[in-house]
Amino acid sequence: MSVKHALLALLEQEPMYGYQLRAEFEQRTGTTWPLNVGQVYTTLTRLERDGLVGADGEDAEGHVIYRITAAGRTEVASWFTTPVARTQPPRDELAIKLALAVTVPGVDVGSVIQQQRSATMAALQDYTRLKRQAGSGDAPSDLAWSLVLDSLVFAAEAEIRWLDHGEARLRRAAVERAAAAPAPAPSATAPTAPTTPTTPTTPTTPTTPASERSAR
């Protein structure tokens, strides 16, 4: 997130001091990305050093008022007209976690995916509820908050689809590994002793009954 350019964009409307800038930023983004006031003043100091803003005195309560310079207006105009670069995507903790989980032995990757899916679905439900509550106001701040919510909803939906896709790939990879594994070798059995051939029996000569012998 470019805090530097966000503050310049706010100062382009009117001069403000640090707490005002933080309040304006959080109002327009629905406190989705809360700013620490120390971060705001640190950024203002750097912007002043670079000639993009300048101190414009103090108000009645002693707050230093900052105004944007001509160089600052050029900078913020360039920011609005330059696409956000995707050549070096920001670090995605979830993608890094899953990439390591599939390579570190002993990690239950399926459990990691299931837990993350449950958490992301809960967040999606919260975003959807906030979107219903936000309504459809005509004020620019309402539209700004609605656009931020849309971004969060779409990102959560995409993450759930990606998790489903990852789970399906893991299952397919497991099936392919099982199919490619060599079949187990047959167990060795003791050789059986050769059988002894049986000797053929000699046919017996039928005996003549005694009565027949007497008659002869």
TrEMBL record:
Residues 91-170 form the Transcription regulator PadR C-terminal domain. Residues 7-77 form the Transcription regulator PadR N-terminal domain. SUPFAM superfamilies: Winged helix' DNA-binding domain (SSF46785). Residues 177-216 are annotated as: Disordered. Residues 178-216 have a biased composition (Low complexity). This is PadR family transcriptional regulator. It comes from Nocardioides ginsengisoli.
